[in-house]
Amino acid sequence: MVANKQGLHARPVMAFVDRASQSRSRVTVANITRKGEAVDGKSAMQMMILEATQGCVLRIGAKGVDARETVDALAALVEAGFKTDSPQPSD
Amino acid sequence: MDILRGIAVTPGVAIGEAMILEAADYRIPYRTVADDEVEEELARLDAAFEKSIAGVIEQAEWLNANLGRDAARVFDWHVGVLKDPQLRKNIETLVSEHKVSAAHAVSDVMRNYQRRFMQMTDPLLVERIRDVQDIERRLLRHTLGDQTEDLAHLKEPVILVAHDLTPTQTAQLAATKVAAVALDSGAATSHTAILLRSWGRPGVIGLSDFSTRVSAGDTVIIDATNQLVIANPNRETLQEYEGRAARFGELEHELDEMASLPATTCDGEEIQLFCNVEFPHEASIGAAKGAAGIGLYRTEFLFLRPEGAPSEDEQYEAYCEAIDGANGGTVTIRTFDLGADKYTQQRSYEQERNPMLGLRSIRYSLQNLDMFKDQLRAILRASGRGQLRLMFPLISSLMEFRQAKMTVYDAMEDLEEEGIAVARDIPIGMMLETPSAAIQIKEFCREVNFVSIGTNDLIQYLLAVDRGNERVSQFYTPSHPAVLRVLRDVVKTCTRSGVSCSLCGEMAGQPLYTVFLLGIGLRELSMAPANIPEVKKLIRLVSIPQTQRIARRALSFDTERQVTNYLRDETRKLLPDDPI
């Protein structure tokens, strides 16, 4: 479930896509709450179109050699609210 | 065959192949490419993505350095989208499999995404449309590249078709092989239209979506005389127009002979015809068309050069060139009419919400006194060289005129202290462009040496119509009874006060109004050089009592439609062979 208040807006989307892109598996994400089609988890555009606002339940799938750890890492990222919501020290 | 009606800027007929100038901020039409061009289009896409990513990163770095990391992070998603493999694949598939142009593929895919965002419920996400549009424009800019450059290297004459042209692009047309222009947008009195008119080749504007209906290489006929454009004409139409183009050449030749004849009515009243110029070299073009001098020199066009603002010395040289080109005729210089345009808007801290009623024209000059004084110095230095007059644009109160005039005397004193001779008696006048000045014309007549009526702005302020807004520009017309009455009253008051009065708006160059303007007492008209022969021809056919009768009748109507129809009928009676 999407935990952070603003949902998957620009910054969380990029955090998700960056992590998904490290994986060698094919990553798909579906928004169960909105009954949408599964999209490519490595696509910055499609992840935004998922319209994953706070409280939406996502189904993350992966197919490939590192599928298990990819799904775990991405699920953890979503449930932790991306951590990016907290202000980061600016440089 | 596709026929569209627009607004003519310069009469004439031209036939040729279309060249299309596409714009990143306008709808990119569906266009296919030949099989052997697919590779080229894909390479173009590659380069566009690369340049766009580099551009966003550069922008983000600048923001990071100047405004901090949070501001820069806004663009992370832009980079993410530009690097999105899925998005890239969608665009490339359209090009490689459906054989559409790279620009159309970019636009098509991005617009589809914009529609998806539009359907969302979360307001934060809906706002992302702006980002998607931003990314689309950036990609398109790099995909389309600098097409202005292509114009300069044309080998054959073409008909240029575009959604719109910037004044700078328009100013460069003279150096190209473009034979005629067709534009989707543009009101008849915009800066672009003014420049097209001075360029002098046929043009039709206000064609809504013509640029998306034709493809490069299509045969296009520009019939500016009848305000028409025709794409892909059938054989009979093409033959008919080939004949017409030849006849138009003959008519032009006949009008050229007008240059050496005096602009005198058939009962012997002499009318002074001047030309409006944007660039000093046009002075000699005007003289060749039979102009008695320059009635309006729009000096702000000095800013349209890529080098930017002109120095005092550069201005001095330009003014001298105009005086020399006018061949002893009077030259009326209007001080900068800046504002409500790109130059001032880019430099202002905050874009004005209503620039047409904002800091423009003489107001801008009086708030930028250093720049204004530089210009006045340059004008005064050139004043001894010929018959020079000086006028201020958009005067709306007496105080404003007095303040501007004081600034002229300040500049004069400075120059004299430096030992530079100036013509102390240089006539100082005003442009009459605001309803307030028209109402107070009697008071103004006590203080000005001459009045020049600028109908373009006067009509727009009188009728509350933005002449550049295509949605309302149909309400902009010199035929409005209120406009005709104001003109009559202003001319009458000036004549009674013994103040010389001329008219220099686009209206002066439209044969439809020539007889009316003479009828209300105007004896000086200033117009684009290309319009002089036709107007002169008309003047030579009428007598003053005849014009007075027609003017009286025109003033008796309630609606602009009646006025236009009446004046058209009367003009056609005088010039049965010419298209009005």
| Tally of alpha and pi helices of chain B | 26
The residue fraction in helices of chain A comes out at 25-40%
Distance between the termini of chain A: 32 Å
What's the average pLDDT of chain A? 83
CATH class category of the largest domain in chain B: Alpha Beta
Structural class of chain B: alpha/beta
Global shape of chain A: globular
- Under CATH, the topology of chain A is which? Histidine-containing Protein, Chain: A
Q: What strand line-up does the widest sheet of chain A have? A: 2-1-3
What is the total tally of β strands of chain A? 3
Which consecutive residue ranges of chain B, at least 5 long each, have pLDDT under 50?
A: none
Approximate strand percentage of chain B: 5-15%
Q: What is the overall pLDDT average of chain B?
A: 88
Rg of chain B over CA atoms, rounded to whole Å, is 26 Å
Description:
The complex is a heterodimer of chains A (91) and B (580). Chain A has one domain: HPr-like (Histidine-containing Protein, Chain: A, 2-Layer Sandwich). In chain A, 35% of the residues lie in helices and 15% in strands. Chain A has 3 helices and 3 strands, in the order αββαβα. Chain A has helices at residues 10-22, 44-49, 67-79, and strands at 26-31, 39-40, 58-63. In chain A, strands 2-1-3 form a 3-stranded antiparallel beta sheet. In chain A, α1 runs antiparallel to α3. The longest helix of chain A is centred in the first third of the chain and has 13 residues, at 10-22. Chain B has 580 residues and is α/β, with parallel strands linked by helices. Chain B is built from 26 helices and 16 strands. In chain B, β9, α13 (282-288) and β10 (293-298) form a beta-alpha-beta unit. In chain B, 46% of the residues are buried. In chain B, strands 1-8-7-3-4-5-6-2 form an 8-stranded mixed beta sheet. In chain B, strands 15-14-13-12-11-10-9-16 form an 8-stranded parallel beta sheet. Chain B has 3 domains: 2-20 and 158-254, Phosphohistidine domain (Glucose Oxidase, domain 1), CATH 3.50.30.10; 35-144, PtsI, HPr-binding domain (Enzyme I, Chain A, domain 2, Orthogonal Bundle); 261-574, Alpha-Beta Barrel (TIM Barrel), CATH 3.20.20. At the A-B interface, α1 and α2 of A face α2, α3, α4 and α5 of B.
